[in-house]
Give the backbone structure.
Amino acid sequence: MMPGPSTSTPLDLLGDLVANARKAGADAADAVLIDSVSLSVGMRLGELERLERAEAGDVGLRVLLGKRQAFVSSSDRSPAALAELVERAVAMARIVPEDPWCGLAEPSELATEFPALDVYDPSEPSAEQLIHMVRRGEDAARAVVGVTNSEGAEAGWGRSGVAIVASNGLSFGYSVSSSSLSVSVLAGDAVQGMERDHDYTSAVYLSDLRQSEDVGHEAGRRAVHRLNARKVATRQVPVILDPRVARGLVSSLAGAINGAGVARGTSFLKDKLGRQVFAKGIRVIDDPHRQRGLRSRPCDGEGVATQRRAVIEDGILTTWLLDLRSSRQLGMRSTGHASRGTGSPPSPSASNFYLEAGVITPAEMIHDVPDGFYVTELFGQGVNGVTGDYSRGAAGFWISGGEISFPVSEVTVAGNLKDMFLNLTPASDLELRHGVDSPTLRIDGLTVAGR
């Protein structure tokens, strides 16, 4: 066995690991190190149910011999373990099938500038702080008239340090953090029926979270407003999606333009590049450089530069989301969307992905609907990424005469994403709170299936 690295920093450790892989016969190699720590708290009915702190660290090595590659990871950083990691990776790479599309970035493809994105909160909350947050949130929810039980409140905090070194010259590291709070409660009783709902907030900085009382009160309000829900007769009507469910539609777009699926031919948008996919005027943005963005990143997982892109411009699909492998398959260049862990190959993923706001307010949008369905929750996974067929259980409120009329549950909303995208209108209420965001959306021509 070759001597293991003796290092003091993550970049030094990875640099030695890559050098040793080259000495062992690898044509090229890269290594990733991820260290993380997290703290989470759960409370129900005022009683602490969970208090957990976790720390983890992994090192992953990828080696390439010609067009063969292998991945090995370990949480053990002792010299002997890292030496064994190199031996195993090189041995595996000698026997795996060839992959004609694998390979590191060319040096000319590597990012040369790494923008400061303010994605790391240096302060660490105490367990007492998180307990205080969840208690205030659940108390506020239970104080809403009509709330009869609680599913609990949870708060979490975490930070991760990421380092990447490759034999093509890449050497870079950065840190990220995130915080969250959620509250879920029940309203009603066995006689009138019971309904549950929730609210949550997430941010890079703990101080950027919404107030606990606001989150709790909103969760309680939503649950109470859903009481005495009815079914409705099956019909085709305009459907309005609340922002928290509209985000799922935007996620479906991100999945459909993922280069890996496009290269396999398994996306319903595989032949739509450069063509009209949404109505004119619609823009969808992928912005890896948003300050304090939950999915912001200074470069991608292969060291390729990231940049803000309008993936939909005036309704036209302008680009796929590509890593190096999928870009080679499609005869294109990487768009800097590679994401990776320590034990698997890179794959494309969106960064801060959102549909831009329109000009009409949600109230005006509802007022313009004589008969329709305002959706506040969707259930199930009824989205076919190959055909675009869409069918999901839904709950929300019926719109009559341009006003919210009564709560609705136990119905299904169905259509096809290609038609839904083309018949979509955004409202003006976009808020960038998550990694995927959307304003309120109106979609005409959907089928609401009930009784």
